[in-house]
Amino acid sequence: MDERRIARELRALKLYAALSTSVLLVLALTAFRRAQPTKFTEIDVERINVVEPDGKLRMVISNRPRSIGPIYKGKPFGYPGGGRPGIIFFNDEGTENGGLGFSGSRGADGRYRASSQLAFDQYESDQILYLSYDDRNGTRRTGLTVADRAEANIFDLVQARDSLQKLPNGPARDSALAKLMAPRNGVPLAATRVFLGRDPEKAAVVNLSDAQGRARLRLVVDSLGRARVEFLDAAGKVTYSLPDSARR
């Protein structure tokens, strides 16, 4: 009796061991397979979200309808999505901090508009470094821009602006909006400091501007190949130029 019971228990143990081994082997193979990257020869997709382990966005690639609106620390603000095809970058806090956008189309009247821009934002603000191309039916401006921005939180600024825009039209509303967008301690909210590129007049230019965004030194090679250096005053008047060195 004891020998038969012992034999049955041994058979049960052998069966349990075999089943356990099989299950462990399947799990190990599955885990190994899941750890391998998936390879695609070609993929059609409308949007890709690249996220951190905690779910914070780091990059969004999308078409126009599924494009994302502005995000500040994971919270949407400003205008809705649906108008920015391309790539949007996000910082460690889940706040938008730049991107790559592009567009181009011809209207029913035969005229076209095309643009592309790679931009990088100031912390908790808007773009301060960008490479751009803008073409309005052949009138083109292409180049690299470096800008200054006031230490103004973009989320707070947009929330205040949107709140003021809900007021009835009139002098009080206009005055409040003008005050909101006015310089802080003499510093404008945004000022272009450097532009290097090609302007709509087909000239190759380097513009160096002061803290108010006023061009003060300009290097130009115009569409006819003539080169000059211009010094300007705060009103934009050329006060000295080369090669003629004439004061004006």
Give a verbal description of the structure:
This protein is of the alpha+beta class. Among the domains are: 1-39; 47-128 and 150-185, no CATH class. 23% of the residues lie in helices and 38% in strands. The protein has helices spanning 2-35, 154-165, 171-180; strands at residues 47-51, 57-62, 71-72, 75-76, 86-90, 96-106, 112-121, 127-136, 139-149, 190-198, 204-209, 215-221, 227-232, 238-242. The strands form two sheets. Strands 1-2-5-6-7-8-9-10-11-12-13-14 form a twelve-stranded antiparallel β-sheet, with no helix packed on it. Strands 3-4 form a two-stranded antiparallel sheet. β13 (227-232) and β14 (238-242) form a beta hairpin. α2 (154-165) packs antiparallel against α3.
State the main characteristics.
3 helices; alpha+beta; 248 residues; twelve-stranded antiparallel beta sheet
Can you describe this structure in just a few lines?
The protein has 248 residues and is α+β, with helices and mostly antiparallel strands. Among the domains are: 1-39; 47-128 and 150-185, no CATH class.
Could you outline the blueprint of secondary structure elements for this entry?
Layout: H1 2-35, E1 47-51, E2 57-62, E3 71-72, E4 75-76, E5 86-90, E6 96-106, E7 112-121, E8 127-136, E9 139-149, H2 154-165, H3 171-180, E10 190-198, E11 204-209, E12 215-221, E13 227-232, E14 238-242
Antiparallel strand pairs: 1-2, 2-5, 3-4, 5-6, 6-7, 7-8, 8-9, 9-10, 10-11, 11-12, 12-13, 13-14
Helix pairs in contact: 2-3
